[in-house]
Design goal:
Heat Shock Protein 90; single chain; 444 residues
């Protein structure tokens, strides 16, 4: 019986997870380097700007100092009309905002105060007018010098395209690196899937340059070869055991029919021999997987065909509640083996004492899946033993094991359902009996 494992809400395969981490790391590196270049550019640019501004202020001081009060007004009027540099008289009621709002501005303001004196004021706006303003003193008077219509700042406007190219290159590089990293793991996953399906021909690359991957591939190929040899030896051994046991069983049956005079004893011995032969068949079914040929099958036809061979009013009554045209992807032989073992299990254990077994076959549609439900109306199975029902050679309580058997029926069912790519679930029905659900992929 397969137990469903809770999946995480957000499930990413290894490729996308590695890609996301690499892209995040490299994109963060690109942005960090851009910020680093921006910070490194701030200091030399601040020094250069402070030197130019200090030179303009000193030139303005000289120009104003060399003129008398009458000509000074004319000089200020001329400078006020200039587009590059404007000089105005600082008034007591002027309202200004400090310039040092960021690292670059603080560095520029500090450099200007060092060059022009501690009483120098650097502002980003005066009386609501934005710009780079420097207030300096000359004698008892104070003046404002404005050199730009907006405050200076450090930015990389011309390199915005470079940032976009860098981020795109980061994404492409992350995808390529992730593919190279995950390719050996993907091949290993495919090889493990093939082995699970019974294909032991593994040819993982043993000449790759990465030593860890090479060692893993070599170990996996060696394991696949050993599993193939074990499977071959087991098949040969079971075939030999089957042949060696069936020959004396056939001889015993012939001798029993010819030499035992008591009719009842003869029937009991023949029944025991038939049971031994059936157990051998169960062993062979469990140990020898057949080649699968998945194809669209009419589920109703397959169920009806298998049920027809079991219907016996004295032992088992099967009611098929399936519509015609219900198709699934399956192998006919493997699906028939599943139904045969389920019906046989129900016939043996799914009935009350002295009464025939009643089996009901129905289905549930679940998107791209069809869940085939096989239910009997017997005593059910104790909950503490439910998880072990598909364990080979395990038998439940005495109520369900009154008949003898190999204990392989449900183990064969689980193995066959897995080979069909389906899912098996076994539980007790709410109003009694055992309910077996087989989920198979729907075929159009």
């Amino acid at each position: 019986m397969m137990l469903e494992i809770a999946k995480p809400r957000l499930a990413l395969n290894l490729f996308w997870r590695t890609f996301a981490l690499l892209a995040l790391l490299l994109s963060g590196g690109v942005l960090a380097w851009q910020q680093t270049f921006k910070v490194l550019e701030a200091e030399p640019r601040a020094l250069e700007s402070a030197q130019q501004l200090a030179g303009l202020v000193n030139l303005s001081r000289v120009a104003l100092a060399e003129t008398d009060s009458i000509n000074r007004v004319a000089v200020l009027s001329t400078l006020a009309r200039s587009e590059a540099v404007q000089v105005r008289v600082a008034e007591q009621q002027d309202r200004w905002q400090p310039y040092d709002a960021n690292a670059f501005a603080k560095q520029l303001a500090a450099e200007l105060r060092m060059r022009l004196g501690p009483d120098t004021v650097v502002a980003r706006s005066v009386n609501g007018e934005p710009g780079l303003w420097v207030r300096f003193r000359m004698g008892n008077d104070s003046f404002w010098l404005q050199t730009s219509a907006a405050p200076l700042s450090v930015s990389l406007p011309n390199n915005a395209w470079w940032l976009g190219v860098a981020l795109v290159a980061t994404a492409l590089g992350s995808a390529l690196i992730t593919r190279l990293i995950n390719q050996p793991l993907r091949e290993l996953s495919f090889a493990a899937h093939r082995i699970r399906e019974g294909e032991y021909d593994s040819r993982l690359d043993e000449s790759t340059r990465t030593s860890e991957i090479r060692e893993v591939n070599m170990g996996f190929n060696r394991m696949a070869r050993e599993l193939a040899k074990m499977e071959e030896d087991r098949t040969v051994m079971l075939a030999g055991i089957s042949h060696d046991l069936r020959t004396p069983l056939a001889r015993l049956r012939l001798e029993t029919e010819m030499s035992v005079a008591d009719e009842q004893a003869r029937q009991f011995m023949a029944h025991d021999i038939e049971q031994l032969d059936a157990i051998i068949n169960k062993f062979m079914d469990y140990a020898r997987p057949s080649e699968l040929q998945l194809q669209p099958l009419d589920l109703t036809e397959v169920v009806e065909h298998e049920a027809q061979g079991f219907r016996n009013l004295d032992q088992i009554r099967i009611r098929v509640l399936l519509p015609m045209g219900l198709k699934v992807w399956a192998d006919e032989t493997e699906l028939a083996r599943v139904l045969l073992n389920l019906f046989e299990n129900a016939r043996r254990y799914g009935h009350a004492p002295g009464l025939p077994t009643l089996v009901e076959v129905s289905h549930v549609l679940q998107g791209p899946w069809i869940t085939l439900q096989v239910r009997d109306f017997g005593p059910g199975v104790p909950q503490d033993k439910m998880a072990r029902l598909t364990t080979p050679f395990f038998r439940g309580d005495a109520a369900r094991t009154a008949a003898t058997g190999a204990g392989l029926g449900l183990a064969i069912v689980e193995k066959s359902v897995q080979r069909l790519g389906g899912q098996l679930d076994i539980c007790n029905a709410e109003d009694g009996g055992l309910l077996t659900s087989i989920r198979l992929q729907k075929a159009s």
